[in-house]
Specification:
The complex is a heterotrimer of chains A (653), B (258) and C (331). Chain B is α/β, with parallel strands linked by helices and 258 residues long. Chain C has two domains: 172 residues, HUPs (Rossmann fold); 130 residues, TPP-binding domain (Rossmann fold), CATH 3.40.50.1220. In chain C, the strands form three sheets. Chain C has a nine-stranded mixed β-sheet with strand order 9-8-7-10-6-1-4-5-11. In chain C, a hairpin with a 2-residue loop joins strand 7 and strand 8. In chain C, helix 2 crosses helix 3. The termini of chain C are far apart. The chains are: A mainly alpha (653), B alpha/beta (258), C alpha/beta (331). Strand 9 of chain B pairs antiparallel with strand 12 of chain C, so a sheet runs across the interface.
Chain lengths: 653, 258, 331
């Protein structure tokens, strides 16, 4: 075959033409990437060089094997094939480019090697099939939040051209040299087809050269186009994954929040460049699904647009991202972290939104009902605006067997939380739990009026100063008490106490009540007298499940008391938020276009055959689902029950 | 525009109020004090005026438990100066308090001012309202139950909107200086984040002024205090929602309302 | 101790407010108690129309002057104070409406006598006037005494039934046109009407009032449904109006409308005095609140401690099914 780079075209040697194209492409690519890097360099530092092993491993599982993409199996496998085709074709491209730019190099072109040619043919075919699947999915069975954008179409076509041009090249090679057919089965087929269509072997070399240039030029064009497109993700995502947060549920340390570009961390800004606009976040997001203002994909796109706009504008540092992102969007997040759980490039939507909330709060801009709640929390230590002295009123009917942990030492310090203490709809469950502990002979005490809201959601609405104040007050209360372990029935308090407080009482473990009950049932301290014998389903609270991975304990408890558990389609790490978290329960109920998260969730449960009860293990879930059953009219089909109430029924002789 | 805002701490009714053993005053064991609600609106209106027209907002408050917290929060919101009147007792009576406020305005150098804003009422107003009495003593213009203050910088005209019954409002033109009793600000009082209040506590200070007791003011003699008797209490209906609804239907039917 | 009892009438755009009749009713009792006369002080300009309903009083002092046409508090207060200085009434009763809000304090200030705010009851005890007043948002009642003459009393709305102070004839009328008008720097410019086009809640026979406790719009919806089956309308307390969930024309209370429907259902309304004064004259009051301590239960005839979303739909449904049954009977 003629060497495409030593061949002269209208007097211009091929390698010189290739140099021209390459320099042009690299210049465009490099210039753009450099612009991006410059913006990132000005962002808030956030060094992430720790745990190199763990980070590398994550790159292997999440980039090389794309574990998260396989959550949606069909497109996941297709994407994995396209990815590996890309890896192979990128490698052979650079090999071929090197050889082409320096024709004197004593190496051959990659596809001159038979086995490589075979591999390339194989992956070209697989890649094209996968592209076909991707195209059909995007244009025929378009999923929610996937766009039929020109960008996406361009890229699909470019990849197809790269793969098809290689296969065609292969066909023309076989047309010229039938002996190469052994390593080029597709080329052989194409060659036969060409012959059958009347082509002569003489046209082979000319068309081969054409295809070679088409292939190389397309890849070079692709390279130049890449940083201007969402497909920058294919370069950015390995970095995004490597520098992802190893504990993404934690919020950034106290900052004054972020509104303008340099106030965000480099990784937050980088999320825009890494995003592939695949829409997995939107498809998981309860706010988006219910038609609220928040659109996580759009949010990340805004980050990207801001980075790009700031490259163009002179006022780069003053560019206000918050503002481009509306405050309605910022407030609509429930912080359920479903988006982050799904994001294939490990973008961190929740911390990003919380940083913006911090900036809004510091500026005094927050929804009016939330303001009232924050004032109540600051003054009374609870979100209900009730007197601190009314906090332990729920247990006044229990004959005072619950101890005051400030007066006498206890094994378990029970941190009740606001909803369990003050909300009349939750109090029965709180009392049921107390009676379980009494039956099990547990040594439990309360902090009474010295307990304050743990501040989990206060932190998540961005009122960091108030969070710190609540922590101080609670720590003072903890210091005045003697206890071995902390327990709570509220997943939000659980998360805060476990991860966002300094160690309590030295190193007291923090337990969720389902973990405690599970232990009591396992050890026989609690005996089951009446098996429940009902089909139930269980809702994983975000802050117990996704945030803390406690999936087994509540399920074990249900199993031990004889309930038949039927899982909802979205369970465990894919569980669907009730809509209350992140302070949403403290904000005005804005009208939604579609179903509210809690309503969608009870409908999901109602579709399970034979299931007549949703079991919850979070006070806010109890309240949200009780309301949702009424607004959806499902109250005669389903009931909501706190797990403690079921356990009490089972262990009472 | 120079604005003085009078702030007053009142008993917080979220905590259950108890009567002291003397039967004439509140038991202070669990009593907490909170900024009077309409004073908070007065503060907000003053801050809005400052944002629109510039100038200074100065706070004047009788000393009381937790008043420092309220004053620092107000400073954090954007007030320029805070003064508290030391050694004052709400039991002196509104007239005596007003007399002390008038003195404090000059000892603390708060006059001249264009406007004095305060709440149209407080939940512990027993013997008179501060705003009208103060205006009368200073011989300034006055209106109360105000929910909007507008100042036209080009004409120098101040217009004030007062709430009347039935959703009716009346717009007045008022000459400055004036004392206004604010019912509600144009916007709900703003939220000030804890971090800002703490910063204010660290970097700012509250001035204090002492003025002599105003003697000889007409005051009231409290004979007794009591929590309202439960005599006028509703008949409570209990049970599951359906049962309660049924009982209510019976009541409605008995009154010929169905 | 033989001075008369005065009631200062509360006039809004030439119309007597109900609070005036309530004050007249209380003043009548006090005058009987003291064996003295009850006079209504009417300040304004061209007042003929309103005299015909004040017959419960012994006399009306009708002070007419162009300067009194507009409700400028300091001008009115000065006139009242000067008249009191020459005629020596024993007590001056001022209904605490938004129109007369400043009046009591200003008159007391000018005369150098005490003012008693928020009175619910007045009587003579041991040669001294004793007043019951409400403090701390209705959480405490205080009894105070004053020996000054005159003493000035502000009356909360609803101290007596309006009918008790209302008559269909006019009492003896004394016209006073020579008055000492104080110059003022407060000028009425115009009245701003409440948003038009909405219903007039004061004319409804059934009202469902919603308050801070409704929290979500769902509760607003279920309240509306209940109002619909009862053939009534929905109204609200200040927080709901401020929140923008209902128009200003639906506000009940001190700054809103005073309503007296046959049935008032208070849903999630805690019962702050400002709201209660606007609805306490209702025929039957049913209160639903999740807080058993809510003061609204002291005003209501029937009370339920529950969440709105539990009770309101159940009640709506119960009424619907009962009216269906009723129709069957007649069919």
């Amino acid at each position: 075959m003629p060497d495409p780079t030593t061949f002269a075209y209208f007097g211009l040697p091929g390698y010189q033409a290739l140099w021209l194209l390459t320099l042009l492409s690299f210049a465009v690519f490099g210039g753009r990437v450099l612009q991006h890097v410059r913006i990132l360099a000005r962002a808030r530092p956030d060094p992430r060089w720790d745990h190199l092993g763990q980070r590398s491993l994550r790159v292997v599982t999440e980039v090389l094997f794309q574990r998260r993409l396989l959550d949606e199996p069909l497109i996941g496998i297709a994407h994995l094939l396209i990815f590996w085709s890309f890896v192979l074709f990128a490698a052979t491209f650079f090999w071929g480019l090197l050889r082409g730019l320096i024709p004197t190099l004593p190496i051959s072109y990659p596809d001159d090697v038979g086995s490589i040619a075979l591999a390339m043919e194989l992956f070209a075919v697989l890649g094209l099939a996968a592209l076909g699947i991707a195209a059909v999915r995007r244009y025929v069975f378009t999923p929610v939040a996937l766009e039929r954008s020109r960008d996406a179409t361009t890229i699909l076509i470019l990849i197809a051209v790269v793969l098809v041009s290689f296969l065609a090249l292969s066909g023309f090679r076989v047309l010229t040299h039938p002996s190469e057919q052994a390593w080029r089965p597709v080329g052989g087929l194409l060659s036969n087809g060409l012959l059958a269509a009347g082509a002569t072997r003489e046209v082979g070399p000319k068309w081969y050269l054409g295809m070679w240039w088409l292939h190389m030029a397309t890849v070079l064009g692709f390279l130049a186009y890449l940083p201007f497109s969402k497909h920058l993700h294919l370069l950015a995502s390995p970095f995004a994954v490597f520098f992802s947060s190893l504990d993404a549920r934690r919020l950034p340390q106290h900052s004054e929040g972020a509104a303008r570009l340099p106030e965000f961390t480099w990784r937050e800004l980088f999320s825009g460049l890494a995003c592939a606009e695949c829409g997995r976040c939107d498809r998981a997001c309860p706010s988006f699904q219910s038609g609220l203002a928040l659109d996580p994909k759009e949010l990340i796109r805004k980050v990207k647009e801001a980075v790009i706009a700031s490259e163009r504008s002179a006022v780069a540092d003053g560019y206000a991202l918050l503002g481009e992102v509306s405050s309605d969007q910022v407030w609509a997040c429930t912080t359920c972290a479903a988006c982050m759980e799904r994001c294939p490039v490990f973008n961190e939507h929740v911390p990003l939104l919380v940083e913006m909330r911090r900036a809004l709060v510091l500026n005094g801009e927050c929804p009016s009902r939330l303001q009232q709640v924050l004032l109540s929390l600051e003054r009374y230590g609870n979100s209900f605006g009730q007197a601190p002295r009314a906090r332990p009123k729920w247990c006044s009917s229990l004959n005072g067997w619950l101890k005051d942990a400030r007066r006498e030492p206890v094994d378990y310090l029970w941190f009740t939380g606001d909803y369990a203490s003050y909300d009349p709809r939750v109090q029965p469950a709180t009392r049921a739990l107390a009676r379980i502990f009494q039956r099990a002979g547990l040594n439990v005490g309360l902090l009474h009026e010295a307990e304050h809201n743990a501040g989990n959601d206060v932190r998540r609405v961005g009122e960091e100063g108030l969070f710190e104040l609540l922590v101080e007050k609670n720590l003072a209360a903890f210091h005045s008490a003697r206890f071995k372990r902390v327990l709570t029935a509220d997943p939000h308090s659980y998360h805060a106490l476990k991860h966002e407080y300094p160690p309590l009482n030295g190193s007291a473990t923090v337990l969720h009540h389902t973990e405690v009950i599970d232990g009591l049932l396992q050890s026989g301290q609690l005996a089951v007298h009446h098996e429940l014998l009902r089909r139930v389903t269980y809702h994983d609270p975000c802050y117990l499940g996704r945030y803390n991975g406690v999936y087994a304990a509540p399920r074990d408890v249900l199993h031990r008391i004889g309930a038949e558990l039927v899982e909802m389609p979205r369970n465990r790490r894919n569980a669907y938020c009730c809509g209350a978290g992140g302070g949403r329960i403290w904000m005005e109920d804005t009208p939604v276009h579609k179903e509210r998260p809690a309503e969608a969730r009870v409908r999901e449960a109602a579709q399970l055959p034979g299931v007549e009860m949703i079991v919850v293990s979070c006070p806010k879930d109890l309240v949200m689902f009780q309301d949702a059953l009424k607004t959806t009219g499902l109250e005669h089909h389903l009931t909501v029950c706190e797990i403690a109430e079921l356990v009490e029924g089972a262990v009472t002789p | 525009m120079k604005i003085v805002v009078l702030l007053k701490m009142v008993p917080d009714v979220v905590e259950e109020l108890e009567i002291a053993p003397d039967g004439k005053s509140l038991d202070t064991t669990y009593l907490r004090m909170i900024l009077n609600d309409s004073d908070n609106h007065a503060l907000e209106e003053a801050l809005l005026l400052k944002e629109r027209h510039g100038g200074k907002v100065c706070l004047l408050a009788p000393d009381a438990p937790e008043v420092d917290d309220a004053l620092f929060a107000a400073l954090a919101k954007g007030a320029d100066r805070a003064v508290k009147i030391a050694g004052i007792d709400a039991a002196e009576g509104t007239r005596a308090v007003v007399a002390r406020i008038v003195q404090a305005l000059s000892t603390a150098d708060l006059l001249p001012a264009d406007l004095i804003l305060t709440g149209a009422q407080a939940i512990d107003d027993l013997d008179g309202l501060v705003a009208p009495l103060l205006a009368q003593t200073l011989r300034w213009s006055h209106l109360s139950v105000v929910n909007q203050v507008r100042f036209d910088a080009s004409t120098g005209v101040t217009t004030v909107t007062k709430e009347f019954p039935g959703g009716l409002r009346a717009e007045f033109e008022i000459k400055l200086p004036a004392v206004l009793g604010i019912q509600s600000a144009e916007k709900p009082p703003r939220y000030v984040p804890v971090a800002k209040v703490r910063a204010a506590m660290k970097s700012l200070q509250i001035d204090s002024t002492t003025v002599p007791i105003a003697a000889g003011m007409p005051a009231l003699e409290i004979q007794s205090m009591a929590k309202p008797s439960a005599a006028g209490h509703a008949e409570m209906l209990e049970g599951l929602p359906e049962a309660v609804a049924g009982k209510l239907c019976d009541v409605l039917a008995a009154h010929g309302l169905l | 101790m033989s001075g008369n009892i005065w009631v200062v009438a509360a006039l809004c755009r030439g119309r007597l407010l109900d609070a005036t009749y309530e004050a007249v009713a209380l003043g009548r009792e006090l005058a009987e108690n003291l064996g003295t006369k009850l006079e209504v002080l009417l300040l304004g300009h061209e007042l003929k129309d309103v005299l015909g309903t004040l017959g419960i009083a012994d006399a009306v002092l009708c002070v007419e002057h162009a300067a009194l046409a507009d409700p400028v508090p300091e001008v009115h207060a000065h006139v009242v104070a000067r008249l009191a200085g020459t005629r020596h009434p024993q007590a001056i009763l001022v209904p605490q409406t938004n129109v007369t809000w400043e009046l009591g304090s200003l008159v007391a200030g000018e005369l150098g006598v005490p003012y008693v705010n928020s009175c619910t009851e007045l009587r003579m005890v041991e040669q001294t006037l004793e007043a019951h007043t409400v403090l701390y948002g209705g959480k405490v009642e205080a009894i105070v005494r004053t020996k000054h003459a005159p003493s000035i009393f502000g009356l909360v709305s609803g101290v007596r039934a309006v009918e008790k102070g209302y008559a269909d004839h006019a009492p003896a009328t004394e016209r006073i046109t020579e008055v000492d008008v104080q110059p003022t720097s407060v000028q009425l410019r115009r009245y701003l009407e409440p948003e038009a086009g909405d219903i007039d809640i004061s004319k409804e026979e059934v009202l469902v009032g919603v308050g801070r406790g409704i929290e979500t719009r769902d509760n607003l919806e279920v309240s509306k449904e209940l109002a619909d089956v009862l053939g009534g309308a929905i109204c609200g307390s200040r927080p709901v109006i401020d929140q923008g969930w209902l128009p200003l024309s639906r506000q009940v209370g001190k700054s809103g409308a005073t309503v007296k429907p046959k049935l008032y259902i208070a849903a999630g309304i805690s019962g702050a005095p400002e709201h209660v004064e606007g609805m306490k004259g209702s025929g039957l009051i049913i209160a639903i609140n999740s807080d058993p301590q809510a003061p609204i239960f002291q005003v209501a005839h029937y009370g339920i401690v529950a969440k709105l979303l539990d009770v309101l739909p159940a009640l709506t449904e119960a009424i619907r099914s009962r009216s269906r049954r009723g129709m069957k009977q007649y069919a």
